């Protein structure tokens, strides 16, 4: 059985991807901060007949990251690591001239530092997998300048660069940074609460991630809309 660690897995894109992998027979280690919601998600995924371990905690905690990897090791190893947990830094988003520096630090700590820390923790098992892959969930705010998205976008741009360098350094792995595009998620609602325009549900984006796993293209940054259209 293949084993995946997915952070931020209790809802939104993380939960949708976990469900798709469970349907394919993957064993899962799931992370989120809210234990009750995470346990409910895990219970639902076990109906697919796979092993699902729910490990609630904060990815900025090194002990929690070690616990995630240890849980995966007990399931057989780590074949896929998905860094999906994200922090806006401040809710709702505000202009840079008002952005509390502590909020920026929080975004960087969750979106960049913790993501790298988890990769470092899991690297021995990823290397041993033979088909090890890392997916970092990016954002179009990492590449485009949108008013009020400066702090969050900067953290995702930093994450993109880490993924790019990791792809150069770990030639035996696949390292994919994926911009999922617009989605209807709690994160977006918290970022821009006044925007009620309809957006795609996360489940509609999941086939893009599955395409990467099926075709295993070179490490790099990919946009989910292009993958869904059959382009790279």
Automatic annotation (TrEMBL):
Q: Does the keyword Magnesium apply?
A: no
Pfam families for this protein: adh_short
UniProt GO molecular function: oxidoreductase activity
Presence of the UniProt keyword Ubl conjugation in the record: no
Query: What residues form the membrane-spanning segments?
Result: none
Q: Which InterPro entries match?
A: NAD(P)-bd_dom_sf (IPR036291), Sc_DH/Rdtase_CS (IPR020904), SDR_fam (IPR002347)
Q: Mind telling me which Gene3D superfamilies this protein's record contains? A: NAD(P)-binding Rossmann-like Domain
What EC number(s) has UniProt assigned to this enzyme?
A: 1.-.-.-
Q: Which SUPFAM superfamilies match?
A: NAD(P)-binding Rossmann-fold domains (SSF51735)
Alphabetically ordered keywords of this record: Oxidoreductase
Q: What family, per the record?
A: Belongs to the short-chain dehydrogenases/reductases (SDR) family.
Q: What is this protein called?
A: SDR family oxidoreductase
């Amino acid at each position: 059985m293949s084993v995946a660690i997915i952070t931020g897995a209790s809802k939104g894109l993380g939960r949708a991807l976990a469900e798709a992998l469970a349907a394919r027979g993957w064993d899962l280690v799931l992370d989120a901060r809210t234990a009750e919601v995470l346990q409910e998600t895990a219970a639902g995924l076990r109906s697919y007949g796979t092993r699902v371990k729910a490990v609630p905690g904060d990815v900025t905690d090194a002990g929690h990251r070690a616990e995630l990897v240890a849980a995966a090791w007990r399931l057989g190893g780590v074949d896929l690591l998905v860094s999906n947990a994200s922090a806006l830094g401040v809710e709702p988003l505000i202009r840079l001239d008002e952005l509390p520096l502590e909020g920026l630090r929080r975004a960087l700590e969750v979106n960049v530092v913790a993501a790298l820390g988890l990769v470092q923790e899991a690297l021995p098992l990823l290397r041993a997998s033979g088909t090890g892959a890392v997916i970092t969930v990016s954002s179009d705010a990492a590449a485009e300048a949108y008013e009020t998205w400066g702090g969050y976008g900067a953290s995702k741009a930093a994450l993109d660069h880490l993924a790019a360098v990791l792809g150069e350094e770990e030639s035996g792995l696949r390292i994919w940074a994926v911009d999922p595009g617009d989605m209807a998620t709690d994160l977006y609602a918290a970022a821009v609460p006044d925007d009620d325009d309809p957006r795609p549900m996360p489940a509609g984006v999941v086939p893009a991630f599955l395409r990467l796993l099926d075709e295993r293209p070179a490490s790099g940054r990919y946009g989910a809309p292009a993958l869904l259209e059959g382009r790279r």
